[in-house]
Design brief:
Elements lengths: L7 E4 L4 H9 L3 E3 L6 H11 L2 E4 L2 H9 L4 E3 L5 H12 L17 E4 L10 H6 L3 E4 L5 E3 L2 H18 L1
Parallel strand pairs: 1-2, 1-3, 3-4
Antiparallel strand pairs: 5-6, 6-7
Helix pairs in contact: 4-6
């Protein structure tokens, strides 16, 4: 398995929340809420992606074809992240580099270009903004980003103990 954020992943339909979290912390994760097992398997093979699943049948199919796959044991997002980090050997993250919705890399956007597109308070208090060029979602390093970073640092510390 890969040992850093360069590892590409594909999550089955049961792992949307995990996919979103992994995207927020820098992973390239394919996820669709209606993705079928065969599409997961073929995408994993063609794009060299590790499968994340809670589906025992999909896990067995992947293993029988020697496709890298992680069977996610828990329903707790913290435990899911911890498991992925442990298996992949993750030691650090690159938060807010990918769109949580569509997985595209974010691009810097000038503050003046987000006026009227973000709440006034955010525009007045934040200085650095990123945008997803595909879905046009705008990101900034506010309290949500700090909460994500704190949660991930806590998980990484637990793994290192």
């Amino acid at each position: 398995m890969a040992t850093n954020l360069c590892c590409k992943l594909i999550a089955d339909a049961m792992l949307g929340r995990l996919a979103k979290w992994l995207r927020l912390i820098g992973f390239d994760v394919i996820y669709k809420n209606n993705i079928q097992d065969e599409e997961v398997l073929s995408s994993s093979i063609s794009e060299k992606r590790v499968i994340l699943t809670r589906d025992k049948k999909l896990f067995q199919k992947a293993k029988s074809k020697n496709i890298p796959c992680i069977f996610i044991n828990s329903v707790s997002i913290e435990e899911q992240l911890k498991q992925v980090f442990e298996v992949l050997g993750v030691e650090s993250i690159l938060p807010l580099k990918r769109c949580a919705n569509c997985n595209c890399l974010l691009k810097h956007i000038e503050k003046k270009d987000v006026e009227g597109l973000v709440p006034d308070y955010i525009f007045d208090t934040e200085t650095d903004f990123n945008i997803c060029e595909k879905c046009k979602k705008i990101y900034w390093h506010g309290s949500h980003a700090l909460n994500i970073e704190q949660k991930i640092k806590k998980i990484l510390c637990e793994i290192k103990r």
